[in-house]
Specification:
The N terminus is likely disordered. The protein is 26% helix and 34% strand. The protein has three helices and nine strands.
C-alpha cells in the first residue's frame, strides 16, 4: 500500500513542474492612468461613478502566463528595506485599452506583504497568509482563461518599485 502511494506521488511529481512568473511593471499603462488623473484635475472634473483612479503611490504591473494549467505554489516577495506592498488584481472584465478601471473590477483579497522596521535582513517577509494563499489560488484559476493579468501595486511605509522584487510560483500540470 505504501509503495502504491509512493508511486502515485512520484507520478504526480514527474507530471508537474515548477514555474515562477515575475510581475513586470507596465509603465505605459501606468502613465495612461496617471494622465487620466491629471486630465481630470486640469479640467476640474470628477471621476466617473465607481471609477478607480491610480494613486500616486501605485503602479500597474502585469503577469504574462506562458502556461494555462497551473496550481498555486507560493509567493516570492523580496523587500530590500522596511515597507508594505499591497498587490491587487483586476478582473478579466477590464480591458485597459478600451475602458477606465472601475472599483468593481478589483479582486479580493489583495496580497499584503511587509517588512517591519527592525526585522533582520534575512527575516522572511510577513504577509496575511490565508489571504495571500487564496489570492494565489484565484490567480491560478484566472490563468486558465487569460494570457495576461493586470495588477495594482501600492507601495507604502518606505517601500518603492526600486526596493521590491515580486513573483509568484505555480506547479504546472501536464
Amino acid at each position: 500500500m505504501v509503495l502504491v502511494m509512493f508511486s502515485e506521488l512520484s507520478l504526480l511529481f514527474l507530471m508537474s513542474s515548477e514555474l515562477e512568473l515575475p510581475f513586470r511593471p507596465d509603465s505605459q499603462l501606468t502613465e495612461v492612468m496617471r494622465l487620466r488623473v491629471q486630465s481630470l484635475q486640469q479640467r476640474g472634473q470628477k471621476r466617473q461613478d465607481g471609477e478607480r483612479l491610480l494613486w500616486s503611490n501605485e503602479a500597474v504591473y502585469r503577469l504574462d502566463f506562458s502556461k494555462q494549467s497551473l496550481r498555486f505554489s507560493h509567493w516570492v516577495v523580496q523587500l530590500a528595506q522596511p515597507g508594505r506592498l499591497t498587490v491587487t488584481a483586476t478582473s478579466q472584465l477590464w480591458t485597459p485599452d478600451l475602458t477606465n478601471l472601475m472599483t468593481r473590477q478589483l479582486l479580493e483579497p489583495a496580497g499584503v506583504f511587509w517588512r517591519a522596521p527592525g526585522d533582520a535582513a534575512d527575516a522572511p517577509i510577513q504577509c496575511y497568509e490565508a489571504d495571500a494563499h487564496e489570492f494565489g489560488e484565484r490567480i491560478a484559476e484566472l490563468a486558465k482563461v487569460r494570457k495576461v493579468m493586470y495588477f495594482l501595486f501600492a507601495f507604502a511605509e518606505g517601500c518603492s518599485p526600486e526596493t521590491v522584487d515580486c513573483s509568484i510560483s505555480f506547479t504546472v500540470d501536464s
